Amino acid sequence: xxxxxxxxxxxYPAHRFAGIFNQKSVHAxxxxxxxxSVLAPCPxxxxxxxxxxxxxxxxxxxxxxxxQDGISVHRPKVPVVPRVASAFWSDxxxxxxxxxxxxxxxxxxxxxxILSFDLAGAGGVAWRLGRDLGLPATGxxxxxxxxxxxxxxxxRAVIRALRNLGLVFYQSTExxxxxxxxxxxxxxxxxxERHVVLPRGIPGPPAISTVExxxxxxxxxxxxxxxxxxxxxxxxxxxxxxxxxxxxxSLAVAREPSIKGVVVGSKPGFDETAxxxxxxxxxxxxxxxxxxLPECSPDDVWECYCAGDLFAFPSHKEGMPNSLLEAMAxxxxxxxxxxxxxxxxxxxxxxxxxxxxxxxELFAQAILRLVASPTERARVGKNAKAIVMDRFMVRKNMxxxxxxxxxxxxxxxxxAFYGTDDIHLSSPAVNGING
Length: 435
Known about the structure:
By secondary structure, the protein is α/β, with parallel strands linked by helices. It has 2 domains: 2-201 and 396-411, Rossmann fold (3-Layer(aba) Sandwich), CATH 3.40.50.2000; 210-391, 3-Layer(aba) Sandwich (Rossmann fold). The protein is 44% helix and 16% strand. It contains 17 helices and 16 strands. The chain is globular and about 65 Å long.
């Protein structure tokens, strides 16, 4: 299959982690398809404006075409007016300014189908390009893209994507339920052939000595042999639960001084590093007990996981927690808030220690319990690794997605994908939005 993948973001030199899991999914697809090409529209930033903010300066450095690990990446520039009609720029506007590039790519590559990651950021571009090029278009709901009010401009854009894409994958059952709510129907009424719960998954860790990586990384961080590392790796944002984690660490350190927190992922100008630093100053117990480190390269994340004794995942909401899956893949025991995607991931298999969402005190208690019990840590880590290897390997899950997409390609283009009883829905959330 020749596949065009449409994404809202993709790594580039100034921001190596932008859309990193889009890249990992694309790499898996590249090993399964005849050819994969990426279309990742990028905001156009006038030269004078680029000097004002780090994010705008980074956008200005993105080339319009480059080849990365054998994958051709096209980044057409799209005008964006900040805080004005934001849904238009990611939907109709993005399609209009990307159409010429996509047509040229299609003439050269002759795509069989289109796959988009993120229904809000790329789903609208995908189904419109599918209609323009005469190709089946599919999409993947990844997280917050379907957590939008149905009556908002972003909500209407996502509803249009849900109605016009020939096949939609969901990272978790919760996201499928959110999509059904946007369409004004129960999840049971969604066609199981067209609405498929399928996590994207992660690549497995590279085969290298865990002990070697652990010792090397802990020495670089200045961790002493008797210190217990509670690791967080991910974006530094409030919804990721960093403030609750700092509060939990403060409570835990008061009872167990050997605990040291390591937070990896800081990128000032793109996140809330300043807020986290302020909270660290407000928690005197954490002085010298928490390290805030910059984001690292995709290859180095495995060394970070190997260096930890416990992984902390305090996120408030997720489509499917990829960093948690990576930690589990190396057998690192984890404490996480029991949000829907995390509960679905573990499904009672004993691969995680779950805590009621946003409860920093119970999070601290769970950390202390695992610090005190090497046996429980080993059991949780072993179960975690088995869960990921069985259900969350990216190559396996991308192969299943391609199998389903092939059925759609073989069946030809189809209109909206409800059953016959769904076409005449009277819900105001879904009426009059096919344009």
